[in-house]
C-alpha cells in the first residue's frame, strides 16, 4: 500500500479516486492507515468538508483495531466547536466504535447540553437514547 498520496496531491483530483484511497486505507485498518486518514481529516490540509467526513467514516473501519489512535485523532475534532457539524458527527461516530470508557461518554453527555451545534446535539442524544433502550447489560449505565 502506498501512503505517498498526500491530501495536497489530490485536492483537485477526481472524487472517486480519492474516495477509493480513503476506503482502502480504512479497510486496511493498520496504524499507518489511520495516520494516512489523519492527514485528510486535519483541518490544516484544507480538504473539503465531505472529503474530511469520508476520511472519518473510513477511520471508523480501522478504529476497532486501533482504538487509542482513533480516539486521539477524533476527540480534538469532536471537541472543536468551530468544525462543521458533519465532521464532528463523524468524529463522534469514530469515538463510539473505539469502545470508549464510561468517563469519556459521561464527559460527552455533560458537555453536549451547551454545544452550539443543534445537529450534533441531536445526533449524540439520539445515540445515547439508543444505548439506553438496548437490551445489553453492558449498556445499562
Write structural notes for this entry:
With 141 residues, this protein is mostly helical. The N and C termini lie far apart (41 Å). It is globular. Helix content is 67%, strand content 0%. It has a single domain (7-139), classed as Vitellinogen, superhelical (Leucine-rich Repeat Variant). The longest helix is centred in the last third of the chain and has 16 residues, at 118-133. The protein contains 8 helices and no strands.
The gyration radius over C-alpha positions equals 15 Å
Low-confidence stretches: none
List how many beta strands DSSP finds: 0
Question: In the CATH hierarchy, what is the architecture at level 2?
Answer: Alpha Horseshoe
Beta content: under 5%
Number of domains: 1
Give the fraction of residues assigned to helices.
55-70%
Under CATH, the topology can be stated as Leucine-rich Repeat Variant
What is the rounded distance between the termini?
41 Å
This entry's quaternary arrangement is single chain
Structural class: mainly alpha
Q: What integer is the average pLDDT?
A: 90
| Annotated CATH homologous superfamily | Vitellinogen, superhelical
Shape summary: globular
Task: Please provide the ordered H/E string of secondary-structure elements.
Answer: HHHHHHHH
Instruction: Summarize the main sheet.
Output: none
Protein name: Vitellogenin domain-containing protein
Domain Vitellogenin: 10-128
Keywords: Disulfide bond, Glycoprotein
InterPro entries: Lipovitellin_superhlx_dom (IPR011030), Vitellogenin/Apolipophorin (IPR050733), Vitellogenin_N (IPR001747)
Amino acid at each position: 500500500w502506498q501512503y505517498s498520496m498526500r491530501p495536497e496531491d489530490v485536492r483537485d483530483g477526481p472524487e472517486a479516486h480519492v474516495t477509493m484511497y480513503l476506503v482502502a486505507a480504512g479497510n486496511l485498518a493498520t496504524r499507518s492507515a489511520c495516520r494516512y486518514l489523519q492527514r485528510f481529516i486535519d483541518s490544516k490540509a484544507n480538504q473539503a468538508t465531505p472529503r474530511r467526513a469520508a476520511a472519518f467514516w473510513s477511520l471508523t473501519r480501522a478504529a476497532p483495531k486501533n482504538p487509542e489512535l482513533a480516539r486521539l485523532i477524533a476527540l480534538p475534532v469532536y471537541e472543536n466547536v468551530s468544525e462543521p457539524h458533519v465532521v464532528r458527527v463523524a468524529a463522534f461516530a469514530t469515538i463510539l466504535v473505539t469502545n470508549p470508557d464510561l468517563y469519556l461518554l459521561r464527559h460527552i453527555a455533560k458537555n453536549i447540553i451547551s454545544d452550539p451545534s443543534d445537529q450534533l446535539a441531536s445526533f449524540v442524544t439520539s445515540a445515547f437514547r439508543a444505548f439506553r433502550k438496548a437490551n445489553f447489560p453492558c449498556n445499562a449505565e
